[in-house]
Amino acid sequence: MAVNGWILAATIELGGGGAAALWGVATGPPARRVIAQNMTTSAVCPALLLLAQGYGRPSYVDLALLLALLGPVGTLVFARLLGDDLAGQQPSAWALTWTAAGLGAAVVLALCVAGSPGRATVKLLVIGALLISGNLVASRALAGGFRGVRGG
Amino acid sequence: MSDALTVVVLLLVAGSATATVAQRDPARQALVLSFLGVLLAALFTVFQAPDVGLSQLAVGSVLTPLLIMLSVRKVRRRARSEEGTE
């Protein structure tokens, strides 16, 4: 296989984001752990997209689509059911949220530019929109932005 | 190149699995477990088994944490109500 920049990028993304998320999710107060758990989605989903491009198999994109859909749902589960541990805390890290959103957008745009325009491009854009909006919704729910989500 | 990716993902899976076992509180364990589920899906993708990865993603990232958190909440409520009646 020729030197594959996409797989190299996926390795860096997965290594850096995964290690940071693992450190955050395994140590510290509960507020930091849920933020790191939320970050997992935005770290792994772009890596899956890059892997699909690197292996040259467009069908692998489905994994990223499913993760972009289900990741925020998982975070919302924790936001709803961890009410006791999170009581009185407002876990929010907006700088991290926007960095993750920017990373996802950059990866999706790079893949759109690399591929030929068509249905695949539309699918990539849908995944990017789902990823970023899901991340924002989950972050807002964790920070207590939605009345009734927290506690329970 | 592919070898480096495999090593990175395997190390992450091993690290997060160890971290999951090392947690004491079940709620925190569920958090690390959902992280492990997502990583396992990435591992299956790297090993060219995306179909297994898809089901692992659905089960590991949402269903297992949901079940664990629901059970934890039920147990805590029961303990609290028993304290209240005594």
Entry summary:
The complex is a heterodimer of chains A (152) and B (86). By secondary structure, chain A is mostly helical.
Keyword list:
heterodimer; A: 152 residues; mainly alpha; 0% strand; B: 86 residues; 3 helices; 91% helix; elongated
Structure description:
- The complex is a heterodimer of chains A (152) and B (86).
- Chain A is mainly alpha-helical.
- Chain A has one domain (5-142).
- Chain A is 78% helix and 0% strand.
- Chain A has helices at residues 5-26, 30-55, 61-81, 83-86, 94-114, 119-142.
- In chain A, 48% of the residues are buried.
- Chain B has 86 residues and is mainly α.
- Chain B has one domain (2-85).
- Chain B contains three helices and no strands.
- Chain B is elongated, with a radius of gyration of 17 Å.
- Chain B starts with a helix and ends with a helix.
- The mean pLDDT of chain B is 90.
- Chain A binds chain B through residues 1, 3-4, 7-8, 10-11, 14-15, 18-19, 21-22, 25-26, 30, 33-34, 36-37, 40-41, 44, 47-48, 51, 55, 57, 59-60, 62-63, 66-67, 70-71, 73-74, 77-78, 81-82, 84-85, 152, and chain B through 1-2, 4-5, 8-9, 12, 15-16, 19, 22-23, 27-28, 30-32, 34-35, 38-39, 41-42, 45-46, 48, 50, 53-54, 57-58, 61-62, 65-66, 69-70, 72-73, 76.
